[in-house]
Design goal:
Length: about 160
């Protein structure tokens, strides 16, 4: 089994660890680094539960990626933001988290980290996505519980529209 040493910054903290060549980034975050907020479900790029933000340092800035489809070794040298890294240090929720909470946008919560990261990525650098843009981004997320209505209300709140 080939192992590689990789260095990652996760939620502002540097980690150095070894990963097998076949280990996905999502598995690495959960099993090696203990960041279990990132959920793995389909592990085929379909459900969106595993979504994290990743900045590979190439200048394009952070983007939402499916951590089940990326190998940990491919993320070597990158900065990753998981759902654990969104709230402020004092516990103040990210606006996306707050909107999801205000509007009962989750039930079991399994899909929620991916949903929240995708919506948060759309708001990077002060961007103000429309409700339509945010709703379109949800096409890559499967939620088995909410019927999406709470998520849609959260999106309307984020867009500044009445739910
Ligand atoms: S676990 Fe990655 S898309 Fe489903
Ligand atoms: S809240 Fe249960 S899968 Fe979305």
């Amino acid at each position: 089994m080939s192992e590689h040493r990789i260095e990652l910054t996760v939620n502002g903290r540097k980690f150095s660890a070894t990963a097998e060549a076949r280990t996905s980034l999502g598995e690495f975050l959960r099993e090696e680094l203990g960041h279990t907020g990132t959920h793995l479900a389909c592990e085929h790029g379909v459900c969106g539960a595993c979504t994290v933000m990743l900045d590979d340092g190439a200048g394009a800035g952070p983007r939402a990626v499916r951590s089940c489809l990326m190998l940990a070794v491919q993320a070597d040298g990158s900065a990753v933001t998981t759902v654990e890294g969104l709230a402020d240090a004092d516990g103040t929720l990210h606006p996306v988290q707050q909107a999801m909470r205000d509007n009962f946008g989750l039930q079991c919560g399994f899909c929620t980290p991916g949903v929240v990261i995708t919506l948060a990525a759309l708001h990077l650098d002060g961007a103000k996505p429309s409700a339509e843009q945010m709703e379109a981004s949800m096409s890559g997320h499967i939620c088995r519980c909410t019927g999406y209505q709470g998520i849609r209300r959260a999106i309307r709140q984020l867009a500044g529209e009445a739910a």
